[in-house]
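pinned: reference chain
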Amino acid sequence: MGYAEHGLGRLTEAADCYRQALGIFQELGDLFEEAWVHIHLGDDHHAAGEITGAGDSWTRALDILDGLRHPDAEQVRAKLSGIS
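pinned: its structure tokens
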């Protein structure tokens, strides 16, 4: 839902959906999906001009992906380097 809301330009609604999804994946202990939600939430913050929020979300995603030794960490690292 968050991805669809974001695509429609409804950034506040997208962020709400992403936060709900975070709670679900955190409850389930699904770190990979939690990381992806953080990435999308960061994208949403970035689109809304909320650079600090974007950086915080992407940093959390990067921490998780690095911990999982997942290759997608490089994609998030690139996003972070684009805002610093």
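why pinned: The longest helix spans residues 11-28. Residues 65 and 73 are 5 Å apart (CA to CA).
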